[in-house]
Amino acid sequence: MKRTPDIISAARGQWKEIQPELDTSSMEVVGRVLRAGAVLRQRLDTILGDEGLNRAEFDLLSALRRSGEPVTPGRLNSLMVASGAATTKRVKQLAERGLLERIRDRHDRRSARVRITDHGAELIDRAFARNLEAERELLAGMNTKQREAVAGGLAELLRSLEGSPAPAPPAPSQLE
Amino acid sequence: MKRTPDIISAARGQWKEIQPELDTSSMEVVGRVLRAGAVLRQRLDTILGDEGLNRAEFDLLSALRRSGEPVTPGRLNSLMVASGAATTKRVKQLAERGLLERIRDRHDRRSARVRITDHGAELIDRAFARNLEAERELLAGMNTKQREAVAGGLAELLRSLEGSPAPAPPAPSQLE
DNA sequence: CACCATTACTTCACTAGTAAAACACTTGTG
DNA sequence: CACAAGTGTTTTACTAGTGAAGTAATGGTG
Questions:
Q1: Residue A51 contacts by C-beta under 8 Å, 6 or more apart in sequence?
Q2: CATH architecture, domain A27-154
Q3: Contacting A residues, span 144-173, partner chain B, CB-CB under 8 Å
Q4: Which of A8, A132, A149 is facing B26, going by the closest CB pair?
Q5: What is the model's pLDDT at position A175?
Q6: Which of A55, A58, A45 is nearest to A126 (CA)?
Q7: Quick one: pLDDT band at residue A153, thresholds 50, 70, 90?
Q8: A with B: how many residue pairs have Cβ under 8 Å apart?
Q9: How far is B62 from A136, CA to CA, in rounded Å?
Q10: Mean pLDDT in chain B?
Q11: Residue-range domain boundaries for chain A
Q12: Where is the HTH marR-type domain (chains A, B) (predicted)?
């Protein structure tokens, strides 16, 4: 079954002419992930904008919301695949908007824990639902079987790259 | 066959507790693409740095190199999934480094075409090979079958999102 | 041809991200 | 216990990206 080529197939063909001996097979996965990610981000970021959030803010509030309890900046870094400096900035700005707050960690004074506010939870709940809807629309060109196939493969890839997700550290019994 | 969950499965489980009626199935694809992309980028960008290029520069030189002929800024935008302002900046900086040059387009004076220099081609050839090697290492945790499966699914996704790639516009017979 | 709509690109003002440095705290070792 | 090594986070200086505005050119229409 011959398929219309996607842009990565086309690119591989071009590289073959330039450097015929080069093994470009990794592009089949990596090139496609990076490109699909860029396209999806470009399209979904505008939807988030309508909800008053950018990608960074959305990711932070999502991570906090689904964690269900306060999270350390270090853990946020890895949940969001961001640098410490980026996380610090994001937390500061959303704290100023009253969407989250910092709570001192009595058990480790190098750190504070970040907790979403009620206002923040309301905002992310709405934005998240809206985002899911937009995602579904973007995936509408694929049938269920195709979506499940790529989802399974991507899960393999993530496990291969990251291993299994670390459980959240135990919440201290008292935080003030 | 029950698999160790990846972070997106875990996240979906968390959302199910917060909003049980929400259909989060799109996260299986979109969430994973975005996350895998972020992880891959984080890891590969350091490799590119060793070759003296950042992601933006790498993408631009790659696009030019594999095109084999001068490209308009507008086409570079879509090849790289970047805004016009970003492309302008990238072109300016790499031109200053002598890695590419701008050629006037006699057929449309709103535009110039961007051509990679010999120096630029040497640099990207080495960087590209190094990048492929790093990609292969990152994919080493997956077997061939798994890689082919996810590659196929991702190709479907890209075609669904972007359609088939536009061919390069004909090269004018004379450019000066 | 004159004029208007559209297109292609650049400029501008601002924001988000990063590595490295700085600082404070925690843990390990003798 | 004292000190060194390690860890967690923030600060800093800088860079890359963006939307909107600006500018020039092209194409369409009467």
A1: A58, A123, A126, A127, A130, A131
A2: Orthogonal Bundle (1.10)
A3: 146-162, 164-165
A4: A132
A5: 43
A6: A58
A7: very high
A8: 228
A9: 32
A10: 91
A11: 27-154
A12: 26-159
